[in-house]
Amino acid sequence: MTEINIYCYVVFILLSITVQVKSQICKNAAQYDRCSTNSACGCFSRVGTNGDSGVCGFLWPTCSSLVPCNTSDNSCAQSNTVCVQHPRCHDLPLCYPVTMSKQNICPPTINKINSKWKQHGITVAGGNQYGDQSNQLNTPTGIYIDDNEAILIADTGNNRIVEWKYNSNSGENIAGSNDDGDRPDRLFMPTDVTVDKQKNAIIICDSENARVMRWFRQSQTNPQILISHIACGGVALDKDGSLYVSDKKRSEVKRWKQGDIDGTLVAGGSGEGNLPNQLQGPSKIFVDADYSIYVADTNNHRITKWKKDAKEGIIVAGGNGQGDSLNQLFHPQGLIVDKLGQIFIADTVNHRVMRWYEEDTNGSIVVGGNGKGKEPNQLHYPQDLSFDVQGNLYVADSANHRIQKYELYIE
Ligand SMILES: *[C@@H]1O[C@H](CO)[C@@H](O)[C@H](O)[C@H]1NC(C)=O
Ligand SMILES: *[C@@H]1O[C@H](CO)[C@@H](O)[C@H](O)[C@H]1NC(C)=O
């Protein structure tokens, strides 16, 4: 039934196409990988090309409408079709109509330069005053959206990590309890959380206990202390599973590869200060696919980027003193970088989220920036942000004790 509805919808869109628009390409993607804000679209592997490119198209064309490619040279006789793998329909490669891969059917995901988010946020977790009930939060300062669109929240004031499943109106404790303490099963003002997908575990910045913890998501038993005696400000993993932790007191970031006992210095570590080799009270961090480390250099009101093995960071956002001009930040705490290198920043004391390209002098306001407050277009000390697979933006709006979601829209 749903399939029929979707099919009718697509036919409707196809009929309403009047101009030629670019079709989407999938690079280095697996079969049926997500590639669009439309969840009914996915990647099809091209046949007869190098194998590293595919087509982003509607996933549910009627199988019987697709004819097999020419078996001798994988060509397609029909015009406007390309030869793709589509094992859900047929073992043999099929000719797929390129009209089903146009941008107005399969709009590109987050990787679009002029992407915009609705200015009014929707509260998707908390927002029921502060408190420790399952529908409440108390000063959430770290978030992570997992592949199932569940929101993992460092519910700092409640000494716990909670998981709000997609579309849920309450959360579930997945680490810690409402009591603080330094027992291994307790947390004390956790400020950041990330997911180790390989190990199906969460990594927690257990700040007031000055340690980094690992809890396995299945069992939730035997939490492990990974690192002790560290004024943890943020945790991040790279694509190999190496762990990076910022230390607010030592103003440095260290990396632990699998099996390492001692961490390796990867940013700062030259005392507190604002020189290129220094940091001052760093908070959250992000590591990109090239192992560059981005640091929310909070007390320097800037974001610095440390390329792999670099001894000095470069300023990629702010660094012009505290303030609310477009070239300034004010105690930024959280950041995330997308595949295009756009840097999104929780500009905490300016109550706004900024976007910056590395070479820009000025950033631009993504959401907030309307003074501190609890209206849907306002924030109050945002401390962290994350994206879901569809490119929607989530913000830990700490002093409003809520998580706000801002929907991506394509112009
Ligand atoms: C398939 O391709 C070969 C080689 O280009 C060609 O000779 C043949 O006619 C094609 N078959 C069909 C059914 O189009
Ligand atoms: C940066 O923003 C300021 C206002 O805050 C403006 O006067 C200036 O022209 C902008 N500079 C650039 C390069 O866009």
UniProtKB/TrEMBL annotation:
It comes from the Eukaryota. Gene3D superfamilies: TolB, C-terminal domain. This is NHL repeat containing protein. Residues 1-23 form the signal peptide. Pfam families: NHL (PF01436). NHL repeats lie at residues 273-309, 372-409. Keywords: Glycoprotein, Repeat, Signal. It comes from Adineta steineri. InterPro entries: 6-blade_b-propeller_TolB-like, NHL_repeat.
